[in-house]
Amino acid sequence: MLAPVAVFGRSHRVTGGRQPRGVDAARLANPAWVEEVEEIRHRCPDDEAGLRHAITFAHENVLHGTGGPFGAVVVDADSGEVVSVGVNGVERLHDSVAHAEIVALVAAEARLGSYSLSSGALRYTLYSSCEPCAMCLGAILWSGISRVVYAARREDAEAIGFDEGPVFPGSHEYLAARGIAVEPGPLREEAAAVMRRYVEQGGTIYNASPARR
Ligand SMILES: [Zn+2]
Question: pTM for this structure?
Fold first, then answer.
């Protein structure tokens, strides 16, 4: 008989048969199609190109039905090389932290063999199709990345019911004081259009804002 697992005072039964426990049960991995997208091999010489990449992966994630309408890429700030890609996998991976930014940061750190993206001589930029939520701002701080640029704004995500959590003006100021620039960039409407398409095709608004629950 499967043992009940207590989560926040409620009793949940483990389902899905013999799933591994602990670390092997959770893998922040992209869907296989990500490697097939041509743009992954293209450099990003400027902010617009980086954001266009992030939005392309967000759009493909919606078209493939593999997650929320969010994409992110980590780019070598000097060469423009795409170091890693992340697409939202919250539903697909059954993982509340599988936001595009975190998947991209985890993949970049694994590829570079370091828990800190500021440990070497190179500097990296995270391009995100949407303004980072409270959780991702925390991950951004610890990742050591030096710059973040986003397309869609917080208001665009909230307009379709997503919740950005406790992000305050001071949140960005705190990161700036630690040498991490978090900046709005171009292509806001293109990124917001991907989010609207997700809603139109019936995508789930997980962790919705309290007003939508
Ligand atoms: Zn996030």
Answer: 0.88
